[in-house]
Amino acid sequence: MSIILQNISFQHPDGDILFTDLSFSIEEGDKVALIGDNGTGKSTLLKLISGKIPIQSGSVYREVDAYVVPQNIDEFSSLTVAEALKVDAKIIALHQILAGNVEPAYMELLGDDWDIEEQVIKALHQWGLDSIRLEQTLSTLSGGERVKVFLSGLTLHQPQLVLMDEPTNHLDYVSKDLLYSWIEKTSAIVLIVSHDRELLDLLSGIYELSSLGIKYYSGNYTEYKEQKEIELNAIENALKGKEVERKVALKKQQKVTERRQKLDNRGKDLSIKKGIGKMGLDTRQDRAEKTSARYKSTQGDRVNALSGDIQSIKDKIAQHSVLKLHIESSDLHDNKILVEAKGLNFEYVKDKPLWKETLNFLIRSGERVLLRGINGSGKTTLLNLITGSVKPTIGKLDVAPLNWMYLDQDYLLLNPSWTVYEQAQNFNPKMPEHEVKCMLHRSQLSESFWDKPCSSLSGGEKMKLSLCSLLISSVAPDLLILDEPTNNIDIHSIEILTETVRNYAGSILLVSHDDVFIQEVGIDYELELK
What we know:
Keywords: ATP-binding, Nucleotide-binding. The protein is an alpha/beta fold. The chain folds into three domains: 2-227, 3-Layer(aba) Sandwich (Rossmann fold), CATH 3.40.50.300; 228-320; 337-528, P-loop containing nucleotide triphosphate hydrolases (Rossmann fold, 3-Layer(aba) Sandwich), CATH 3.40.50.300. It contains 16 helices and 19 strands. The strands form five sheets. The chain has a six-stranded mixed β-sheet with strand order 5-6-7-3-8-9, with helices on both faces. α7 links the parallel β6 (161-165) and β7. α5 (116-126) packs across α6 and α9 packs antiparallel against α10 (278-320). The radius of gyration is 31 Å and the shape is globular. The two termini are 45 Å apart.
């Protein structure tokens, strides 16, 4: 069994070409990733493979239907759990038969699946969804629970071909471990779009999608990074070689010009001595100038070609390099108490506290704190308490006067109706226009972005604009609050965020299930919610 794609192209309705002539195959037993920057077409390619959107050009061959774990789970919020798992018709047939309606259509639809309800409940239980009802709509579930409904279909249906689009978004660390275990054990063909570097290290190959097309790298993500480093070194060496060639060509061009000038002058002197008339001199001079022009043109073309090669190589290096953004450090002295909780709890429903035990903790200036907990443990609620969005119902929470920046996975600090330039400019209305645009350009948001609405940006672009807005505001945050900041952004954007947060000398309160990100930014201690 295999998947074969031949000459696949896709064009948006507005005429923008997403990709052209993509060809690759995935063989039986392969577990591979599809990675690339936001906007390169990874999700679209999965939809083409699954048949969710029609193929415009080329062909997709697959022997079986694909089971899909989607990224945009909100579009399924109106479905019941049974509908999302595509067992609703069988369950209806079962109930009709049990009620005495033994029409052949129901018997044929149910087949041998008399225990279908038990199978579904068992699959849901395996993914930690014990209290979920089959008739319950997905809109009543948390983001993590919705993803786990689709993951339970892996257990229920035992598919031979699985397509996953960012499956670890919204998952807590317990659920991620369950998914990692399933990936290691399954014999299915698996194609995953993901920025989860821990997950990517479980796979046997990486397909990289870019504006240049699609390229395969054998091995897991760690091995992919090593191969990319070799590529970068080769590109940098090529740049050095081309720069040496250009210097040689420039010197040669200069020598040719000087030599022709000397020959021209010598020819004039000899002609005068031999008594050649003005008309003869003009003819010789014209011939010499044409010869000289040909030499200059030849060498000039060579220099221009080398300059073009050098710029092309520099562009490739820029694609590999990580944008460096510097957040100003807080001027608070270390160990100042920023947040103090005493017997803290919160009730969404009266007499039903969110946490089993009240919370007691301190966060001091200079500390980097990780807030851990499974889905539904109240991590975002605690962040809302600290920022003042909601008030405690039990106990006391003291927050010192401070400047804080809240960066969440949806980048809600951005106004979706503003353009990119308006968003940046509103963070510091006194900054001159040219300085704002200069800051945007340095944040890899070039002129082509300035008039776009913030709502149209990719996750990585929203992250860059959020950080850029902070830089423009010229206000150093005393506390940087990060709520699942690596969700919805590509790997390259994660590297930018990691570098920025790691170099920030201030207090951090982090919610994340990205263990690689946690390790790389550095954490002093954890607060676990239960």
